[in-house]
Amino acid sequence: MNTSHCKPGIAAVLSRFASAALCLLMFLLAFPALADTAVAKRRVEVAFVLDTTGSMTGLIDGAKKKIWSIANTIVDQYPNSEIRFGLVGYRDIGDEYVTKEFSLTTDIQSIYAKLLAFRADGGGDTPESVNEALDVAVTKLGWSDKNQIKADRILFLVGDAPPHMDYKQDRKYPEVIAEAVKKGIVVNTVQAGSDLSTRKIWKEMAGLGRGEYLAIPQDGGRVTVIVTPYDDDILIIQRKLHLTVIPYGSSMRVREVESRAGLAAAAPAPVAADMAAFVSKSRKGEAVVTGDGDLVADVGEGRKKLAELPKTELPEAMQKMSAAEQAAYLEAKASERKELAQQLEALVSKRDAFILEQEKASSPRPLESSFDTSVKEALKKQMK
Predict the structure, then answer these.
(1) CB-based burial, 206-222: b 16+ in 10 Å, e otherwise
(2) What is the bridge-based pairing of β-strands 210-216 and 99-105?
(3) Residue 331 and residue 337 in contact, taking contact as beta carbons nearer than 8 Å
(4) Strand 151-159 and strand 42-51: pairing?
């Protein structure tokens, strides 16, 4: 900018402003991570490595009931966070499978669906394929690079039996956990039951992983589900919200989105209410499903442009509409969703207040160790 014709005072101010802007630009170029954290959402990555052998029936059932409550613990502390969950189920050689992994994703509904599909079975001998499960969790779930993205990376190993140390094909836990620490992953161990050999190794693992050793009853402990006067109304609103979802894409993708949107209908009211609370708080009324595939949210949030989508990827009813009619149809769905989301937010606030009062009323009683309470307390401590 040529300032030679400006008044001396104005020229001096512009010169100082330009110098300051240049200094700021050089500073941000030198320290790009600081620029990123100024605008980026807080990211929290949590993976559960879960023993799914026959002795874990009670704990798995409890995890199915409380996964949304655990997710809410994160979003309540950090409302603007990007939450990614991952899951590894493991058994042993000779069982139906050794490991089943599901990568870290913001689509918490898909992880919930995978968890629902787990059934406790197999096992028999005491050691299990813990080493292989840990290796899969550390290397194959898609953790963010700690040198690129600032995030909380937290892993929970949950089981009741020690690892096979006699297997030749796997890496052993000291080596795997050392890699986890280098990646910035905190490794916690949750022991179900009281097996002494498991306790010794679980404590060692937590020490190596800079995490916590947590002991809970064999059945996962008493999972407290607080029923509130607002659960049924939340479920009604949630079902109405699901009617605003417009799945699009391939037939397989459409079925997947419809399945995710309908998960709440099959869940007990308190679990469905926890799910609704998470979606309401984390998605701010913008979306009903936690992944992509909903045309209303994807277009509304700018991830897709309606005009660029092939007609064959649209629902049959929209294929017959003009471009203007399609836009109006989406706008009507988005408007309806916004109104319902506001109603849901009000109900969720009342439900949270009710639960808080119930918890205060029972606070003189010692907190019982259970899967969900142990995980929630560890998360609160370890989210930096």
Answers:
(1) bebbebbbbbbbbbbbe
(2) unpaired
(3) no
(4) parallel
Measure Cα distances from 353 to 6, 67, 142, 357 in Å: 61, 20, 36, 6
**Model confidence pLDDT, tens digit, residues 260-275:** 888 887 888 899 999 9
CA atoms within 13 A on the CB side of 358: 12
Q: How far apart are the first and last CA of the chain?
A: 44
Global pTM reads 0.84
Measure the CA–CA gap between 256 and 260, rounded to whole angstroms: 6
DSSP state of 211: E
Calpha distance 356→361 (Å, rounded)? 9
Residue whose pair of structure tokens reads 């991830």 in the numeric block: 303
Q: What's the confidence (pLDDT) of residue 4?
A: 45
pLDDT band at 29; cut points 50, 70, 90: very low
**DSSP per position, 98-124:** SEEEEEEES-HHHHHHHHHH-------
Residue closest to 115 by CA, chosen among 69, 71, 65: 65
Contact 218, 60 (CB under 8 A): no
Q: Hunting for tokens 């205060």 — which residue is that?
A: 360
Q: Is 220 left (phi over 0), alpha (psi -120 to 50) or beta?
A: left
Cα 313 from Cα 310, distance rounded (Å): 6
Taking residue 23's Cβ as centre, other Cβ atoms within 10 Å add up to 10
In the chain, where does DSSP find H-type helix? 8-30, 32-39, 57-77, 108-117, 130-140, 173-182, 196-208, 231-242, 251-261, 263-266, 269-283, 295-300, 316-319, 323-361, 371-382
5 pLDDT higher than 70: no
Instruction: Give the per-residue pLDDT at 34.
Output: 41
Q: Which of 223, 254, 277 is nearest to 74 (CA)?
A: 277
Q: What is the pLDDT of residue 16?
A: 59
Picking from 347, 244, 262, the residue whose alpha carbon sits closest to that of residue 300 is 244
